[in-house]
Specification:
Elements lengths: L15 E11 L3 H12 L4 E4 L16 E2 L3 E2 L4 E2 L3 H12 L3 E2 L10 H7 L20 E3 L1 H14 L3 E3 L3 E8 L2 E9 L2 E12 L5 H6 L3 E3 L4 E2 L2 E4 L3 H10 L1 H15 L8 E2 L6 E3 L3 E2 L7 H25 L7 E5 L4 E2 L3 E3 L7 H5 L7 E4 L4 E3 L11 E3 L8 H4 L5 H21 L8 H10 L28
Parallel strand pairs: 1-2, 1-11, 2-8, 11-23
Antiparallel strand pairs: 3-7, 4-5, 6-7, 9-10, 10-11, 12-20, 13-17, 13-19, 14-16, 14-18, 15-16, 21-22
Helix pairs in contact: 1-11, 6-7, 7-8, 11-12
Length: 461
């Protein structure tokens, strides 16, 4: 009889081909959505695979409810446009996204008072308080709804409840993937596969070079029944008393950003991006389990004190905990180019730039694995050092990477070339023509694409 730690032999068996497409996108998070949309808009037949019952990944299931790192503080402009801005536009039209308009950007006290607790500020700025910039707070179910609508509009084949198992590789070329499902194991074949799993599952299985990484993990939660006006009044008018209580709450939570609660588009519901837990590995079942158990314990202990001591929170209650654990870093691709912390900090420019983040740029080579063909990577597991990834992995730039990967896959198939040989100039032109910003211009954008108009519109918050 086998014991724990031993190995057993699995019997070989046939696997049914369940779908075939031009482009297979594995992972329906922000990068995966943008990749699927980008490929479909450029004529590719797309199959999108997702293990959960919803789309959006850490944006919706992980409830990371502020879209930031899409503001270039040097050029003072929105740096991530395209699909990400379209998502914001659509959620705003539902009354489920809020953001400061262009005349509210900056350090005016009125803007800071209005928007600080929405989290729409430049948290990298050395100014205190941080100036308001373009960022968007949104509702997680709005993201799920809009994502599904766009998938239907673009004719993308969506396969939920499909858990990636392994990559199919022949002669160094990726041919598709195997998924585990309730119907058994299924094969999904494609001309190009895009790994948007967040953990580099597909590329690692294919044998692409990569390194390991680790960062804090979070069990995000929301509180309802909050009088946010009273909470903000207390913070503003009684700063010493507020600071004492705030410090105690953060101690109980065991780790959080400066603002442990932020407003959401739902009245009386606040978002708590905490507790943070260091020293855990997002690839290990034991550590993922520990994060959930310890996170819930810390949350409920803290909420008892929050309810008793913090004005505005007397009647608060836990609405929900995010169904997806907040994992920030695991495997990282070692691609044709590896981004460094110096590249990010010094605003390095690249001739093959295909996406922008806050004040940094991504070359196409960071999406291309070495030694494996027919495969692209987009999202927080892109080709970067651990130190670089920690400051360049937010959702909007991951979406920009995904959009570029999807368009690149479609262009490669049209031209009959490998994805590593895509005409990057044509890719840049295509991205810009459909409202994205590949970062190929040397200065500020001269025009405002239609999908960036959200920043100018009046939205009821």
């Amino acid at each position: 009889m086998s014991r724990i730690g031993d190995w057993i032999q699995e019997p070989a068996h046939d696997v049914r081909v369940a779908a075939e497409a031009d482009v297979v996108v594995v992972g329906g998070g922000p990068a995966g959505l943008a990749a699927a949309y980008g490929a479909a808009r450029n004529g590719a037949r797309v199959t999108l695979l997702e293990r959960y019952n919803h789309l959006g990944g850490l944006a919706s299931g992980g409830m990371v409810l502020v879209l930031d790192d899409m503001w270039d503080s040097h050029l003072r402009e929105i740096s991530v446009r395209g699909t990400c801005m379209e998502m914001i536009d659509r959620m705003a039209a539902l009354g489920l996204a809020a953001f400061p308009k262009s005349h509210e950007w900056g350090s005016a006290p009125a803007s800071i008072d209005k928007w600080l607790r929405w989290g729409t500020f430049d948290f990298h700025s050395k100014e205190k308080p941080h100036p308001i910039c373009f960022a968007a707070a949104f509702d997680p179910d709005a993201w799920k709804r809009v994502s599904m609508e766009k998938v239907k509009e673009l004719g993308i084949e969506l396969r939920l409840h499909s858990w990636f198992s392994r990559t199919l590789v022949e002669d160094g070329k990726v041919k598709g993937v195997i998924c585990d499902t309730k119907q058994g194991r299924e094969a999904i074949l494609g001309g190009v596969v895009i790994d948007t799993t967040g953990d580099l599952d597909v590329a690692a299985s294919a044998g692409a070079p990569h390194v390991g990484g680790s960062y804090i993990m979070t069990t995000v939660f929301r509180l309802g029944g909050v009088d946010t006006d009273e909470a903000e009044r207390f913070e503003r008018e009684e700063p010493a008393a507020f600071e004492e209580i705030d410090r105690e709450i953060k101690r109980l939570l065991g780790g959080s950003w400066a603002q442990w609660w932020l407003k959401t588009p739902l009245p009386g519901v606040v978002w708590c991006n905490c507790p943070h837990m260091p020293g855990l590995d997002g690839l290990k079942v034991d550590d993922l389990t520990r994060a959930e158990v310890n996170g819930r314990k810390a949350i409920h202990e803290a909420v008892s004190v929050i309810r008793a001591r913090l004005p505005g929170f007397r009647n608060c209650f836990v609405v929900d905990l995010a169904p997806q654990t907040g994992v920030r870093q695991t495997r990282l691709l070692e691609g044709e180019y590896v981004m460094t912390k110096d590249d990010v900090m010094h605003r390095a420019r690249f001739a093959d730039s295909i996406a922008r983040g806050r004040d940094y740029y991504y070359p196409y080579r960071t999406l291309v694995p070495r030694s494996v063909d027919n495969l692209l990577v987009a999202g927080r597991h892109y080709s970067a050092t651990s130190a670089a990834q920690k400051i360049s992995r937010e959702i909007p730039p991951c979406m920009a990477m995904g959009e570029a990967a999807g368009v690149a896959a479609a262009l490669a198939l049209d031209a009959g070339v490998a994805v590593r040989d895509v005409d990057v100039a044509a890719l840049q032109r295509t991205l810009r023509a459909q409202g994205a910003d590949p970062g190929d211009q040397g200065g500020p954008n001269a025009d405002v694409p239609p999908l960036a108009l959200a920043a100018q519109r009046e939205v009821t918050a």
